[in-house]
């Protein structure tokens, strides 16, 4: 249709209003300002799908409303058990699931993309099961809200999860018992002075809440659960479990770090469930998992780093970029949330993240640390295997291992990333120490953070599965990096390592800045010792671990718990008055495992999330026959 033309000679609008030229100009200026404002406001709406619904035809809006929806089928294909529960079939990470599964999923209805939809879906699943089994509401309360068969899962484990072994080395046992005593001391102190708070302040003998967990409490309880269980601290484990049952309140209001809540709370609860089969841990993990879903309501589906757990706000509490190590460290836990709930939404969210990452161009094959959740493009070219980047790489290789080596996409991403890191970031100092520098738009910063020291263990873990000609090379690289991290400890007066150490201006493996001299009970170095020990059985890793135990006892143990120190280069250190929850989750657990036989939490059966919470490898399909629809 041709638009009607203005009859010649008629004044145009707004001239028709009888306005003079300057007035017309002002009027038009005002009008265009107003339009820009309205249009901009629409873009700023938290849920971009609302905007799309206004402007796009219904069907197009549905397709565009969530970038994750475009990956929905691949996520479901990848995350869910393939077909009915034929025992040997892998559960996830196949790019092409059989048609049968796709049909089952289609029959199960559309995926839930929002927390509300997810809740609805969980409720619907519950109703369906109730009909299937005739369970009463009371029975349903205690019954798993999924079709996961815990007993079947336990039978699938290849090794017992804890306990001593006959004929083991008595020295290793004695050292393990010492570490168990440290754990008991850390727990008892927390219980006495800070029970229910997030961390213990051991000097002032009170609790710390902080602002990372959005009103959630008991970070130390949840982080410590599996360590208490593994160390057979039965009474203490029961105390922790009781707190989760009676006092762990998820109806909180506040801004939380999506990453921290995921690795500590979701990871801790999932591990506690898999180790013990106690339903309370599973239901809390699923409930909390649902509360995290609104963080993914961004134009790309890349989650924002901060989410308000209590309101309807949509995860837009923080401005700016999303951080690689944060949105890249959800995969393991979210696949397990889908596994336990039967709800594909969790897996879809993380598979979409992978899709976005695979689409965006990588400078020199490297993954920068900051990505815009709005455009899906990198925001800065800072690359690091330490803070901001670290656990993204860790989760690639662990996703592959957790999938029982089926998730070849993750393996390829890991292999490619490691190759690029080695080429562009790994360097050798004049004194012969291998380190991983940071990369800023092509310029190297010859610094390694304590956080980056996890990479010795990660590279060793991956080396086992590298191609024949690369295996030894990667084992050597892992050993060299672990050695460098040990040097950062050995060169300090306390025999504990600084937060960051440098390889410039004649310095090697030491902090050069006052602000980098602190040690906050971090685990990464002993984490690498644990993996290196298990994979090489070179006794030096146990010796190095024991040096750390002695240093912790000497410099960090105070009257009411363990504290970080402000300067590792002085033997009269000042304490920072904080017993971090990861000290109980990770540092003490890895030290303990270093002196256990290999089949305690065997690497055949478990992968550790980045907070050292063990999650099972999917050897088999744990769904019950009756429950498959
Ligand atoms: C832990 O919370 C996790 O290991 C995380 O990945 C980063 N670092 C801290 C402990 O240092």
**Alpha carbon gap, first and last residue:** 53 Å
Bound molecules: 1-deoxymannojirimycin
Proportion of residues in helical segments: 40-55%
Largest sheet: 3 strands, antiparallel
* Mean pLDDT level: 82
Shape: globular
Global Rg: 27 Å
DSSP summary: helix tally? 24
The largest sheet has its strands arranged as 5-6-7
Q: Which residue ranges are poorly predicted, with pLDDT under 50 across at least 5 consecutive positions?
A: 1-18, 38-146, 314-319, 625-629
> What percent of residues are in strands?
5-15%
By DSSP, the count of extended strands is 18
Q: Quickly give the structural class.
A: mainly alpha
GO molecular function: calcium ion binding; mannosyl-oligosaccharide 1,2-alpha-mannosidase activity
Membrane topology: Single-pass type II membrane protein
Pathway: Protein modification; protein glycosylation
Keywords: Calcium, Disulfide bond, Glycosidase, Hydrolase, Membrane, Metal-binding, Signal-anchor, Transmembrane, Transmembrane helix
Secondary structure elements and their pairing?
Layout: H1 21-44, H2 48-55, H3 58-65, H4 67-70, H5 72-79, H6 99-107, H7 115-133, H8 137-142, H9 150-156, H10 170-194, E1 199-201, E2 206-208, H11 219-230, H12 234-247, E3 255-257, H13 258-276, H14 279-292, E4 306-308, E5 322-323, H15 324-327, H16 331-341, H17 345-359, E6 370-371, E7 378-380, E8 382-383, H18 390-402, H19 408-424, E9 426-428, E10 434-436, E11 438-440, E12 443-445, E13 447-449, H20 455-463, H21 468-490, E14 500-502, H22 524-536, H23 540-556, E15 557-558, E16 561-562, H24 581-594, E17 606-608, E18 614-616
Antiparallel strand pairs: 1-2, 3-4, 5-6, 6-7, 8-11, 9-10, 11-12, 13-14, 15-16, 17-18
The protein binds 1-deoxymannojirimycin.
